[in-house]
């Protein structure tokens, strides 16, 4: 499969061409992360690539985006808790330092993480984790992906 969709993650998701898409939400698109060194990592993409900040949205759309972030966070929490007894919590972040469009990171955290990192931001993980093929999303994540998608379906119906 070509990685062309990565050049336009939002547009490709809206066209049904982004293979990471979990579900369309009211003001965003829930996707599973490319990297899975913390299994279940997901992202909520805003549904308009011109939107760069939360404050760019009207009050109603802002609340819809934040509600979507909450739902995705809860879906990740439920799925990860069910599949890994070492699940601790979910961290939610809206940073916007690399990709210009509004997006929210949903990071599951686990007891098996290294002691020097488990209580700190995920961004302190070594750079190698982010690009190492061992942590790339793949068929080994099918059950987890399905569980998150199923939980998200329950929360949005």
Describe the structure.
With about 160 residues, the chain is of the alpha+beta class. Helix content is about 30%, strand content about 20%. It has four helices and five strands, in the order αβββαββαα. The protein has helices spanning about 10-15, 60-85, 125-130, 140-155; strands spanning about 20-25, 30, 40-45, 85-95, 105-110. The protein is globular and about 40 Å long.
The largest β sheet comes out as: 5 strands, antiparallel
pLDDT < 50 runs, ≥5 residues: none
Q: Kindly estimate the percentage of residues that lie in beta strands according to DSSP.
A: 15-25%
What portion of residues is helical?
A: 25-40%
Mean pLDDT: 94
Silhouette: globular
Q: Structural class, from secondary structure content?
A: alpha+beta
Alpha-carbon distance between the termini?
31 Å
Which strand order do you get reading across the main beta sheet?
Answer: 1-2-3-5-4
**How many β-strand stretches?**
5
**C-alpha Rg (nearest Å):** 15 Å
Order of helices and strands: HEEEHEEHH
The total count of helices amounts to: 4
């Amino acid at each position: 499969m070509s990685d062309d969709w990565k050049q336009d993650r939002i547009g490709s998701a809206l066209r049904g061409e982004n293979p990471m898409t979990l579900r369309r939400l009211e003001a965003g698109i829930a996707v599973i992360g490319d990297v899975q060194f913390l299994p279940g990592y997901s992202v909520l993409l805003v549904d308009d690539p011109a939107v760069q900040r939360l404050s760019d949205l009207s009050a109603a759309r802002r609340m819809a985006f934040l509600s979507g972030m909450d739902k995705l966070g809860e879906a990740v929490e439920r799925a990860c808790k069910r599949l890994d007894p070492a699940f601790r919590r979910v961290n939610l972040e809206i940073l916007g330092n690399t990709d210009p469009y509004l997006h929210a990171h949903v990071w599951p955290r686990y007891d098996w993480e290294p002691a020097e990192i488990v209580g700190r931001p995920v961004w302190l993980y070594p750079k190698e984790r982010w690009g190492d093929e061992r942590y790339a999303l793949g068929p080994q994540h099918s059950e987890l992906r399905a569980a998150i998608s199923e939980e998200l379906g329950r929360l949005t119906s």
